[in-house]
């Protein structure tokens, strides 16, 4: 054990900056494995979490089962980059049980999972979490927070949550965790419009001649890693057949968002055969809805999109198209390459009043960085006061559905680029197979 701890401390020293936090994290892991772990192992319903962990090397020795076994995967031809010490720690963290099990020992069967995926905008996250804390029904479900790598301030915000079960996961191959090797930038890499042949550098330029930028590829990697992990990787969710709602750190849920999305998820099955999802907000993020007495079927938007495992499986069969399309935006990739393969069934159902507000002024479309994030902090977040009608479910089961035409990219659209390096495409493909049980 002492050996294990010193190994972790080495990792902490190596990554320093967040040493204090690492000490806390290590202590938590220690407490969870030795104090909580054995207790959970004897509690009904948690056997699976800890079972079989003891025969695994490394972290397994202290009772944590890594969600991904990189060495075993390599034997099967799935080549994930070797995790560094920090990533190993994160992999171990990902298999910890949810927090707040003492306050919320059980989940409702009709729950909709909430998945909040975050980058590095702590001020935004605080606001998003404060909104979540008063969402009606939040205490019936599991909140999963997926971090793009590790940022101490982001972690601290999530650790303060006491209003529901919450499970944190950390993308262990997030480029910013790797300072001198892929998925970060490695020494011989081409940059910008370098010519690989004359310079002898490494990389494949995109269709516009640009080489990979770690800031830009990070988002699509995180999204795909998160989707695969949430649906197929986690003990808590692998067997879950309901719906999951996805939000980001600059999405403010109104108090009725959860109840409304529960209603919409049901209604889409009954009223909208061409809908594969429900949304908490209009696709146009500036719109708060028409406020008429109808439901709307439209293009799937990015705020509070909600779908089930059936749909995930269909997305997952298109992994190759997702990972090889030369566009660094996950959403544009989905619209261009994945949804069209679903035929006519590519709509989402939503109510005529929004249940979520996109408040971020500082988008992530050009990637993000720690230094830039300060620009986002003081952006005016005028949300206004919450109207009474948005505090209670406000969807009428009798409403008809109005269908809006979907305006997509013209056929032949080749993507915005930024995603042509074979290493990125292969990493993405590895994420698609890291949880499959067959070779
Ligand atoms: C969830 O919150 C509601 C409203 O505050 C409360 O009535 C209910 O008992 C809570 N349920 C659980 C499981 O904590
Ligand atoms: C999942 O959603 C799809 C699309 O709405 C629907 O056809 C299917 O019946 C749903 N499956 C389950 C198990 O709810």
TrEMBL record:
Keywords: Disulfide bond, Glycoprotein, Glycosyltransferase, Golgi apparatus, Manganese, Membrane, Metal-binding, Signal-anchor, Transferase, Transmembrane, Transmembrane helix
Residues binding Mn(2+), per UniProt: 250, 358
A GO cellular component entry from the record: Golgi stack
Top-level taxon: Eukaryota
Topology class, membrane: Single-pass type II membrane protein
EC number: 2.4.1.143
Gene: LOC112289173
Transmembrane portions of the chain: 21-41
InterPro entries assigned: GlcNAc_II, Nucleotide-diphossugar_trans
Annotated pathway: Protein modification; protein glycosylation
Similarity-based family: Belongs to the glycosyltransferase 16 (GT16) protein family.
Catalysed reaction, written as an equation: an N(4)-{beta-D-GlcNAc-(1->2)-alpha-D-Man-(1->3)-[alpha-D-Man-(1->6)]-beta-D-Man-(1->4)-beta-D-GlcNAc-(1->4)-beta-D-GlcNAc}-L-asparaginyl-[protein] + UDP-N-acetyl-alpha-D-glucosamine = N(4)-{beta-D-GlcNAc-(1->2)-alpha-D-Man-(1->3)-[beta-D-GlcNAc-(1->2)-alpha-D-Man-(1->6)]-beta-D-Man-(1->4)-beta-D-GlcNAc-(1->4)-beta-D-GlcNAc}-L-asparaginyl-[protein] + UDP + H(+)
Pfam family, one: MGAT2
Coiled-coil zones: none
Disulphide connectivity of cysteines: 190-201, 272-275, 323-428
Molecular function GO terms recorded: alpha-1,6-mannosylglycoprotein 2-beta-N-acetylglucosaminyltransferase activity; metal ion binding
Record-linked PANTHER family: ALPHA-1,6-MANNOSYL-GLYCOPROTEIN 2-BETA-N-ACETYLGLUCOSAMINYLTRANSFERASE, BETA-1,2-N-ACETYLGLUCOSAMINYLTRANSFERASE II
Species annotation: Physcomitrium patens
UniProt cofactor(s): Mn(2+)
Name of the protein this chain belongs to: Alpha-1,6-mannosyl-glycoprotein 2-beta-N-acetylglucosaminyltransferase
GO biological process: oligosaccharide biosynthetic process; protein N-linked glycosylation
């Amino acid at each position: 054990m002492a050996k294990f701890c010193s190994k972790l401390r080495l990792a902490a020293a190596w990554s320093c900056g967040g040493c204090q936090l690492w000490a806390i994290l290590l202590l938590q892991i220690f407490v969870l494995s030795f104090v909580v772990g054995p207790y959970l192992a004897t509690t009904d319903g948690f056997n699976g979490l800890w079972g079989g962990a003891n025969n695994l090397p490394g972290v397994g020795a202290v009772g944590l089962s890594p969600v991904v076994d990189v060495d075993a995967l390599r034997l099967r031809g799935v080549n994930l980059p070797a995790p560094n010490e920090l990533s190993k720690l994160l992999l171990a963290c990902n298999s910890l049980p949810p927090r707040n099990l003492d306050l919320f020992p059980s989940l409702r069967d009709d729950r909709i999972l909430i998945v909040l995926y975050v980058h590095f905008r702590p001020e935004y996250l605080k606001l998003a979490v404060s909104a979540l804390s008063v969402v009606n029904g939040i205490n019936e479900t599991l909140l999963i927070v997926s971090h793009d790598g590790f940022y101490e301030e982001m972690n601290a915000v999530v650790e303060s949550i006491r209003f529901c079960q919450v499970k944190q996961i950390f993308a262990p191959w997030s480029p910013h965790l790797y300072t001198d090797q892929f998925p970060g930038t490695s020494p011989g890499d081409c940059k910008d419009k370098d010519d690989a042949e004359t310079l002898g550098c490494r990389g494949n330029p995109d269709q516009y001649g640009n080489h990979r930028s770690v800031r830009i590829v990070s988002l699509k990697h995180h999204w795909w890693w998160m989707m695969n992990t949430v649906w197929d990787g986690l003990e808590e969710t692998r067997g879950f057949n309901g719906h999951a709602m996805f939000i980001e750190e600059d999405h403010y849920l109104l108090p009725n968002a959860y109840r409304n999305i529960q209603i919409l998820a049901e209604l889409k099955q009954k009223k909208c055969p061409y809908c594969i999802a429900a949304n908490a907000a209009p696709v146009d993020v500036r719109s708060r809805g028409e406020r008429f007495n109808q439901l709307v079927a439209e293009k799937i938007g990015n705020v509070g999109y909600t779908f089930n495992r059936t749909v995930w499986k269909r997305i997952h069969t298109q992994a190759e198209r997702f990972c090889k399309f030369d566009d660094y935006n996950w959403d544009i990739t989905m619209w261009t390459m994945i949804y069209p393969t679903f035929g006519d069934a590519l709509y989402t159902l939503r109510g005529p009043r929004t249940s979520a507000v996109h408040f971020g002024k500082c988008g992530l479309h050009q990637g993000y960085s720690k230094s830039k994030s300060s620009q986002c902090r003081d952006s005016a977040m005028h949300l206004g006061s919450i109207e009474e009608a948005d505090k209670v479910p406000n969807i009428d089961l009798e409403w008809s559905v109005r269908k809006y035409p979907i305006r997509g990219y013209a056929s032949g659209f080749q993507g915005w680029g930024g995603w042509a390096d074979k290493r990125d495409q292969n990493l993405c493909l590895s994420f698609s197979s890291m949880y499959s049980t067959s070779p």
